[in-house]
Amino acid sequence: MIHAVILAGGKGTRFWPLSRETWPKQMLNIIGEDTLLRQTIKRIDGFHPPVNIWIVTTKNLIQDIGFHLKPLGKEAERIRFITEPAGKNTAPAIGLAAVIINKISPDSIMIVLPSDHAIKDRGQFHEKLKQAIKGAEQGFLVTFGIKPNRPETAYGYIQCGASYGKSSDGIFHVKRFLEKPDAEKAKAFIREGNFFWNSGIFVWKTTKILEAIETHLSGLSRGLKKISVRKDLEYDILSEIYSSFESISIDHGVIEKSRDVLVIPSDFGWCDLGNWTALSDVLERDERGNILQGNSIDIGSENCTVIASDRVVATIGLKDMVVVDTPDATLVSSKEKVQEVKKIVETLKKNNREEHLVHRTVERPWGSYTVLEKGSRYKIKRIVVHPKAKLSLQIHHHRSEHWVVVSGTARVTRGEEVFDVHANESTFIPISVKHRLENPGLIPLQIIEVQNGNYVEEDDIERLEDNYQRMKKE
Amino acid sequence: MIHAVILAGGKGTRFWPLSRETWPKQMLNIIGEDTLLRQTIKRIDGFHPPVNIWIVTTKNLIQDIGFHLKPLGKEAERIRFITEPAGKNTAPAIGLAAVIINKISPDSIMIVLPSDHAIKDRGQFHEKLKQAIKGAEQGFLVTFGIKPNRPETAYGYIQCGASYGKSSDGIFHVKRFLEKPDAEKAKAFIREGNFFWNSGIFVWKTTKILEAIETHLSGLSRGLKKISVRKDLEYDILSEIYSSFESISIDHGVIEKSRDVLVIPSDFGWCDLGNWTALSDVLERDERGNILQGNSIDIGSENCTVIASDRVVATIGLKDMVVVDTPDATLVSSKEKVQEVKKIVETLKKNNREEHLVHRTVERPWGSYTVLEKGSRYKIKRIVVHPKAKLSLQIHHHRSEHWVVVSGTARVTRGEEVFDVHANESTFIPISVKHRLENPGLIPLQIIEVQNGNYVEEDDIERLEDNYQRMKKE
């Protein structure tokens, strides 16, 4: 059996302000029509033999990622989820997945796919994957080395050693792994020719990686064994075990120390979307080297990435810059320093702001809401409810709500009454009256909600009934 | 008699997106608490003998400038307005003011003050003004030359000639006027020492400037004579005369060609706020040379100006840049190229957008409104009505309106009814029903308006009664 394990955790910092803590970059459609996560899932489509798909993510993201996959329809139903109590980098995530998969499908092949990569040539990727699976079946840890087209300093490198098998197979033993180099070193690597970018995509047997973890990360291995011996693992116990794990990458913790590593040099149009500058490698640029998206007007900029939304973003005479505009936050950075965006996110967090955490538009299982304005004692939201969806039956203790239906039909429960409100009609929900909003129709329901009260925060909600098993947070 | 004529026209391009066509830079409080226009008016305060104040502006701005001066209270009542049918640069504006003032107060002294200057030392400004008035009384055209503290290339220069009167008076004949120099020339001017920045502030007799216009701008002079012979000048006639005027500055058209020009070297902390880069001369900078205003977070930028509003603007590693963020438009420009902002404004105009024309918050005589969101078939506004103020009695033919009172009390006229709506209550105005919103209270009234209809533009308004003599545009 072959299992693809997609790593889909993350803190939403590196593509801030488009990514947020509750909306990390794999949920963004920054390249192409679809999101990075859904692209990663589709990357396996058509591979023979068929592959089981697993997604490993953290507890705070699991529900949103579930909703996020709904557009995949039937395809989504066969995906299984593994929930980490907290993000601990890739080694614990991969170890946990290996233990769980190994239990239901012993000694099977596991493909590890980060969810923030772009791969242009899916056909060639499948070819290389087949080779890798052969290597994995022979008991090796197999990775892909990407043929570098420039002396990039943002990636780690792999140096090839001797051929494995026939030299025409194009599979090599790894001589050594190298950290992100400086410009000098990177140029030397390119000249030498047997250096490749470390792709972070791996293929191995579950048993083999668990052995390697046992050899090189004994603490993690002990915890994983505790997990593997239990029949049903309660979340609290997993959480306790997990809290003892060191936060470490599988590369640093295991692969770089192991001797049984093969590398398959590849050229399938790979890119690791590590931060904003990586976009220039995958998106088309204009004749001045710019990527201009959304409502952007530029005069004479060069080598810039401007991601606008509805608001006008005017740029003049910029060089090597990134400008990203969202409804509640804007980033303007030199490309050179853009990795420091994590410090911006830290500052926002420290100041108890929300711009690192959520977007102005928040996706919910029943639709979405957008905060249009928040003032003293009031908040205005646009709420969209999917056809046939309903919000929880709820009570607010500190606010009343005015609802104006802009399009569609709202079915409103208010106290003991149930009535329909049509487009261009409104209704009022007094403080402490239980209520529910529902879209009985076939087109989306759109309402404007004006909240009034002494306290208009999201946590003033008491859920009495919910279709989505949420009894605390909206 | 002494008359100060404040030039307050402009197209709102150079400080876009803070300035707009309907809200040019003199109405901005970009330096200090008060707006540039009100600072200019206050600059005359305490001058002896007392000075009459006139404001020359264009027809499209006159009403907003009137409302804009209300905070001056009694002071505003003594200001007289001259309305140009269209902006034609400074020569026609000054000529028109001279003709009008000369008619009611023949052969008086006229001080010309642009409304976009900063002057730090008002006391010294008054001293120099007194000297200038003496020169003007002797029949000279008098200007101020600002002592340069750097080889600035954004200003024109004046070269001093021989002393006028006693050399201790510090008044000189002008040897010549010089266009904005290149960096080389500017440095040479500074080395020579007898070069000063052309301040654009003038003092002269009305009769003298009209004579000079007659000599150097005969077309303008003929038009002004037609104006001066009429007892009552109808707007249509003025408009016709004005349309024939060439658009030209008083500097180029008259002063630079005249021989009777005196210059008073001055050092009263003058700055011409010509564009965004000028802010660095008047606002305090941090230790890295940055000006950071509003909700801005910076990491390691140098020599930058960041003007944020409520939304977070995060900047990283920028050099010599201007970033200006407003609710509906953002500008990111190199300082070097920021004068090209006028091309951005042209593009917006050409594309029939509104971001060059109005702000998301529009000031009205009765208060203000802010468009929070516009969608297909709906528009959401926050409306603030000043205590005791009322909007016009009006009808909309294509939209109904839901009003939710957020704070204060609304007196609503709807058809034949008149009733009060209190905080946290709402009401509904159906299509084609005459209505009026009024604040009968002592605190500002704040309502959220949700418009619904096939057409939700500002021009769907029929005014039946208005306290502010507006029967067309809100």
How is this structure best described in words?
- Two copies of one chain form a homodimer.
- In chain A, helix 4 (90-104) packs parallel to helix 8.
- Chain A is globular and about 75 Å long.
- The mean pLDDT of chain A is 93.
- Helix content of chain A is 24%, strand content 33%.
- Chain A is built from twelve helices and 28 strands.
- The first copy, chain A, has three domains: 2-272, Spore Coat Polysaccharide Biosynthesis Protein SpsA, Chain A; 284-346, no CATH class; 361-465, Jelly Rolls, CATH 2.60.120.
- The longest helix of chain A has 16 residues, at 122-137.
- In chain A, the strands form seven sheets. Chain A has a six-stranded antiparallel beta sheet with strand order 18-19-20-27-22-25, with no helix packed on it. Chain A has a five-stranded mixed β-barrel with strand order 6-9-7-8-10. A four-stranded mixed beta sheet of chain A has the order 12-14-16-17, with no helix packed on it.
- Chain A is an alpha+beta fold and 474 residues long.
- At the A-B interface, strand 15, strand 16, strand 17, helix 12 and strand 19 of A face strand 15, strand 16, strand 17, helix 12 and strand 19 of B.
Secondary-structure blueprint:
Two copies of one chain form a homodimer.
Chain A lengths: L1 E6 L28 H7 L9 E7 H10 L5 H4 L2 E5 L5 H15 L4 E6 L2 E3 L2 H16 L3 E6 L10 E7 L8 E7 L4 H10 L2 E11 H11 L1 H12 L5 H9 L6 H4 L7 E6 L3 E3 L6 H4 L8 E3 L2 E4 L5 E3 L4 E5 L4 E5 L3 E6 L6 H10 L10 E4 L2 E9 L2 E8 L7 E3 L3 E9 L2 E5 L2 E5 L4 E4 L5 E4 L6 E9 L8 E4 L9
Parallel strand pairs in A: 1-2, 1-4, 2-3, 6-10, 12-14, 13-15, 14-16
Antiparallel strand pairs in A: 4-9, 5-11, 6-9, 7-8, 7-9, 8-10, 16-17, 18-19, 19-20, 20-27, 21-28, 22-25, 22-27, 23-24, 23-26
